[in-house]
Amino acid sequence: MKKLFGSLIVLAGVLVLGACGNSSANNTDSSSNTASADNQLEAIKSAGVINVATSADFAPFEFHALIDGKDQIVGADIDLVNEIADQLGVTVNILDLDFNAVLTALQQGKADIAVSGISATEERKQTFDFTDNYFTPEQKLVINKDNASAYTSIDSFASKKVGAQKGSIQESIVQSQFADSQLVSIAKVPNLINELKQGSIDGLVLESAVADSYVAQNDDLMVTDIALEVSADDSYAIALPKGSTELQAELNRILKELDENGTISEYVQKNTDLANENAAQ
User: Fold this and answer.
1) 165 is in which domain, residue-wise?
2) Number of structural domains, the chain?
3) How far is Cα 55 from Cα 234, in angstroms, rounded to an integer?
4) Is the pLDDT of residue 85 over 80?
5) 71 and 183 inside one domain
6) What is the pLDDT of residues 213-249, one digit of tens each?
7) Contacts of 236 (CB under 8 A, 6+ apart)
């Protein structure tokens, strides 16, 4: 997923929402702009910063990487928010949280938007506004290579443990498509990968680019050919506070432009390559 990091990523100070935090690169105020104005878009422009909640364990969309010897949060979603910030004329302040705390931060007014491979489900739409979808992923099942002959269909996972990131759309995929399996939900994808490698879970459902990235880093894992159903609810969108009409319209304009000129796809491919390169270091 052409343009490289348009704005400086400012790492937020430690923010505890039952989640991990990230060190701050400067003294940018991490409080949301929603409290200061009804018009979210104007409030962000006035503050000169957009506060973005994400969970940086979801390569290639958001992840930690060593860039010039420094740990930075990068990814296709990060490139996307940097381009958005460029077009709004503001800088980016990243809040790095557990995925299940990302929408909580938005709801509590600690972030202006949430961008973290988030699907605009009907349930979430009751609490948040969303932009138009900007990426529709395939869903893949990852297993240990040693189990390739044993796990060849969804039925072969009956009574087995299948993992998914806590609070993610993959949880509902496991619940609906692996009805005879036991769902294991964990907040961080790297922890799920470790559980899979250790045999504590038997399979793991991930978005395809994320699955490919982690498999490239772990020779003992593989992506299966087992087909999983994908619905419109699985597509990614940016979450906004309810009533963010002006901001929603402006973000939809930017997303349409980036989709039509192929930039989002370039972001995904570039960061897939970056994640694999970083893992090889």
Assistant:
1) 139-232
2) 2
3) 17
4) yes
5) no
6) 899 889 999 999 999 998 777 799 999 999 999 999 9
7) 61, 117, 118, 119, 133, 134, 135, 136, 137
